[in-house]
Design a protein that fits this description.
2 domains, single chain, 313 residues, 13 helices, mainly alpha, Ferritin, binds fe (ii) ion, Inducible alternative oxidase 2
């Protein structure tokens, strides 16, 4: 009997029963001896095990963790072909696409994004790399917040989500890869990092609240944010073309992630990132439209197009 088991048993009988006259004083003493003995045995057997060495961590790694979970690019074309500069330039991303605000919520969303841009312009001016870091730190939030809230709603409502969660998570991961890429190219100084982190914290709180209150407006905000991202990256490309920003070799992470040529340059990376932002712009405006049309499930339309998904969850 372990001390814990004995303790549980003892709690049933003590203090009244074990010292009851029918048991007598000898019984009480024997019980105390047993407690002391078991405590010593437990002490001996519960010596903390030494922390595993780094070799142990490798040998005990579960099989599933040995399968790399690398981030996948968001554009399907990236998976099937290696991008050259010409490929990236010829990609039709709808460079000047703009969703005209149709109702009050859309107008507020548009106004909020345009207003947020002004201090960013004043603060970063033409420091496009730093501006990109700021943009990506913020832009990686909505997908994760949207996925989390839809996940919780799916659980609470005990119903399927309609195929959004995976796309939203993928968007968040894609934005994080943008950030990781820019951090390889240039690093903001400490006070810039502090400012960016503060802005992101505030945005996270406000956006989470907005998504809980009105996911339709939240996706519209992201749609407009992505329109601004496309514009910012176009200015970034113009600065490189004008020679104001050095067209340095693309970092390794970007070559691997976007399947770029090994001699790719910074300009190719900006083109690839801008193409991703254009896709986020289109998907988020579309998500907002679907909520407005009360036809959220993507699977309904996939069925109509004959693209029957294997799993409809
Ligand atoms: Fe991005
Ligand atoms: Fe984006």
């Amino acid at each position: 009997m372990s001390l814990a088991t004995f303790g549980r048993t003892a709690r049933i009988f003590t203090p009244t029963r074990i010292t009851h006259r029918s048991f007598g004083i000898k019984t009480t003493l024997r019980a105390q001896e047993l407690i002391t003995k078991l405590a010593k045995r437990d002490q001996r057997s519960s010596h903390p095990t030494p922390p595993p060495s780094s070799d142990d961590l490798i040998t005990t790694m579960p099989h599933e963790l040995r399968i790399p979970m690398q981030p996948h690019p968001i554009r399907a074309e990236t998976l099937t072909q290696q991008w050259s500069t010409t490929d990236l330039e010829l990609l039709d991303i709808g460079l000047t696409k703009h969703r005209h605000p149709e109702n009050l919520a859309d107008k507020i969303a548009y106004w909020a994004v345009k207003s947020a841009r002004k201090p960013t312009d004043i603060f970063f001016r033409n420091k496009y790399l730093h501006r990109s870091v700021m943009l990506e730190v913020v832009a990686a939030v909505p997908g994760m917040v949207g996925a989390l809230i839809r996940h919780i709603k799916s659980l609470q409502g005990m119903r399927h989500d309609g195929g959004w969660i995976g796309h939203l998570l993928h968007e968040a991961e894609n934005e994080r890869m943008h950030l990781m890429t820019w951090m390889e190219v240039g690093k903001p100084v400490l006070w810039e990092r502090a400012l960016i982190a503060t802005v992101q914290t505030g945005f996270f709180a406000v956006f989470s609240l907005l998504y809980m209150v009105s996911p339709r407006t939240a996706h519209r905000v992201v749609g407009y944010l992505e329109e601004e991202a496309v514009t910012s990256y176009t200015h970034f490309i113009n600065e490189i073309d004008a020679g104001w920003i050095e067209n340095v070799p693309a970092p390794e992470i970007a070559i691997a992630y976007w399947n770029l040529r090994t001699d790719a340059r910074l300009r190719d990376v900006v083109l690839a990132v801008r193409a991703d932002e254009a896709l986020h712009r289109d998907t988020n405006h579309h998500f907002s439209d679907r909520i407005r049309a009360k036809r959220e499930s993507l699977f309904d339309d996939l069925d109509k197009n004959g693209d029957q998904p294997p799993i409809r969850y």
